[in-house]
Amino acid sequence: MTTREAWLEARRTGIGGSDSAALFGVNPYSSLTKLWAEKTGRLPPDEDSIRLRWGRRFEAGILDEYKHVSGYELAHQADVVPDRVAEVLPGVPMLRHPDLPTMLGNTDAIVLCPERGPGVVDAKTVHPFKFGEWLSEGRPPLNYLVQLTHYMECAGLRWATIAAFTGVADDLYVYELDFDAERGARIMDLIDTFWRRYVVKDQQPPVDGAKPTAETIRKIYPRDLGRVVQLTGPAAEWAAEFDDLSFEIRELEKRRDVAKTKLIATLGDATAGTLGDGSGFTFKAGKRGRSLRRASAKSLRKYTGES
To answer: CA-to-CA distance for 143 and 25, rounded, in angstroms?
Structure first.
């Protein structure tokens, strides 16, 4: 077993920082059902990806740059909070909350600030398009903030920072977060409830409409076995809702297609068309012919010549 495989196996024994974000419903890559399937061994951890590998490769450089710009020294969690670190599996030390053994964590580093005391550092590599969302919100995504709070609670520290390489600017993006005791307690409560109710009892959580949930169910049941089951209880209500919504979607699609065709006919051989508010449509040629696309006023200025 490789070091990474051992670490992934250790994560199955409890709830980590990104897992907590799923419990809050703010992790776009996970859900209660996916988390349950992973922790009960029904679903293997996500396969390693080029995005994750680049993140691990950039981590050391990001931490080194954060050390440079902050002027603070960095240390390993085992050297700063040794009483909070335990061997989850042989040779795999992780943060473990003293009051909640199923709360685990693994920080990228601990920053040693003389004024504020030690804090958590989390290194991130962010795609430039995603970083635009960070800027519009004025903060990193909620799943990262929940993750930081999880680490602070687990390590017993009172502040944390995200250091991110964005590819947009040369400077490192740094965002600091103070510990929120109420949020920390909420995370602990969600972890304890989830683990006892769904993992220990091996009971599947309620199904939601999240994409990770649907993908998980398909992976758990990859093939049919040729049998027939009786759909009872609320299944009749779900079936009626499915039928009603399917009909509404088909009707809406018909109306959309009519509107689309009218717009195309109006545009004719024009490349773009503008509406009263400055926004509009483009009707440009591509590999599969011309396609109609909604366009903002800003993106249409290159066609209208307006500054």
So the answer is: 9
